[in-house]
Amino acid sequence: MIIAVAGKGGTGKTTLAASFIRILKEENAGSVLAIDADPNSNLGELLGVKNVSTIVDIIDDISKNPGQIPPGMTKDRYIELKVQESLDEEEGFDLLTMGRPEGPGCYCFVNNILRELINKLMGSYTWAVIDNEAGMEHMSRRLVRNIDRLYIVSDASAIGVRSARRISQLADELKISVKEKFLVLNKSNKETLKDETDKTGLSLELILPLNDEVSEGAIKGKSIFNLKTDNSMFRLIRETSFMDIFKKKPHKLKNR
Ligand SMILES: Nc1ncnc2c1ncn2[C@@H]1O[C@H](COP(=O)(O)OP(=O)(O)O)[C@@H](O)[C@H]1O
Ligand SMILES: [Mg+2]
Q1: What is the whole-number distance in angstroms between the Cα of residue 65 and the centre of ligand 2?
Q2: What is the CB neighbour count within 10 angstroms for residue 2?
Q3: Domains in the chain: boundaries
Q4: 208 CA distance to ligand 1 middle (Å)
Q5: CA 204 to ligand 1 center in whole angstroms
Q6: 53 Cβ inside 6 Å of ligand 1
Q7: How many CB atoms lie within 10 A of CB 109?
Q8: Whether the CB of 108 sits within 6 Å of ligand 1
Q9: Is pTM beyond 0.85 here?
Q10: pLDDT tens digits, residue range 62-86?
Q11: What CATH homologous superfamily does 2-247 map to?
């Protein structure tokens, strides 16, 4: 099952993606591939991964030392092998991090490598959780063509909700197959902005209030696994349909 998290910058995408990963781990739900597709990578940090290796770093290293490519092997193939080798393997999940490419041409190249890799790797995992970059550009790069659950996160602002609406529309226009789309209102107390949220046409799946432990954890650079198990954020996520998906006993992801 592929879970993707999108939304405007700073709304809480990475926090939500990391929370999903923590819950999947706690539930022993199967193997998890965490994908940080945000060039401003911080999913690894929030998951407590030390020394995150990024695809961009690997490409840079190979470009600087092309002599390491074995004779008869294409550069792209070698990059793929190296990235696969350097997947961060943690307890409960593996992490694939894109990193920040320099220049628009590089962007496209790194994205193609990431897309190919995701396609290849998916067959080996039960879950993929993708933390996307802010905005909508990533949508048009179509890292995956099939998303089972797309969570669009907004903060308690009209701009955040409108941005969520545009992301949702873009997902439709691009004909990415999305089985279910959800709106998440983060750092929000009650169903504020009802007019705006209604206009998104999305189901309001989750409202997460400002959470002191999350804010403090961010200040201290703590990982999501350092938060208390009974933190209300996890409880609220656990009260949503997210938990129903375990009951369906998903099979390994298909290579698509
Ligand atoms: N419910 C919340 N309560 C308090 N702080 C939060 C909450 N959700 C996110 N944050 C904080 O807001 C900041 C942005 O969150 P982040 O998940 O990095 O957003 P994004 O990935 O969308 O840019 C982080 O410092 C994070 O700790
Ligand atoms: Mg983020």
Answers
A1: 31
A2: 24
A3: 2-247
A4: 11
A5: 19
A6: no
A7: 17
A8: no
A9: yes
A10: 999 999 999 999 998 999 999 999 8
A11: P-loop containing nucleotide triphosphate hydrolases (3.40.50.300)
